[in-house]
User: What shape does this take?
Amino acid sequence: MAEIDLKTDLAGIALANPVMLASGTAGYGSELAPVIELSRLGGIVLKSVTVEPSKGNREPRIWETSSGMLNSIGLENVGIEALIDRVLPELADLGLPVFASIAGETVRAFARLGAMLQSAGGFAGIEVNVSCPNVERGGIQFGVDPNATKAVVKAVRENCSLPTFVKLSAAVGDITRVADAAGQAGASGLSLINTIPGMAIDIERRRPRLGAVTGGLSGPAIKPVALKAVWDCYRATGLPIIGGGGVYDSADVVEFLLAGATAVSLGSAVFQDPTRALTVVDGLGAAIERAGATSAKELIGGLKTW
Ligand code: SIN
Assistant: This one.
């Protein structure tokens, strides 16, 4: 096999390879450190934090369906102060770029979170989560509306100069309108896609499988949806994209690169097997070669449309 260059550049952040762990799959980093050699990955996105700690939604919060995993965690998190006081000091030891993720009920909350991360330093970048389908306020209510997304991103950018990636939902009429609004407000890039709203029902008990009734679907079933979102937003905005949704193997990563992603995150696959991301990194050189390239970078947006 020829020497394959796995490096990528995500809005100025140098990644050793494009393989990342999506928010919610890596906790706050240190939980996974004893299980996998995190420094072999391109980067990780930590669980979204809000201004105040949150206990999340009532249980059950996870249900495995025949077509993927439903979750309704409801943004359980330690809160921004604990992230900065307790989590941040340990991050340098992980040896890879770490991205914070923020979520808020109001534009002001997003502004405050951005300001606090700006003063704290230490993160490679931030993900702005305007697409959680599992909370009553904030979350996807922002991400379905280009103007609301623009207001959130503007508020974050006014308070924080870290590279900012806006996590969007594909459960909108035209995702490119929201992506474009994020870009106009100064987003450095996009993170596509969040889980897709869904539900499951226990017929004997006539009850929903999830305590919050509905949740977000992830896994292989959403990969085609995610690929299209990446392809559409790449062409519409030209912004760097962290693509993800149903990524299980190295060929999946190459598909996302070809659709226009600069980095690619694993989600549900990590719950099944935390070492999966390393297997994906190990096979990436061969998958890039199968696509006729010698580097990850040259595949970005390289889809041929006949
Ligand atoms: C959750 O905490 O409910 C999942 C996070 C998300 O979908 O953004």
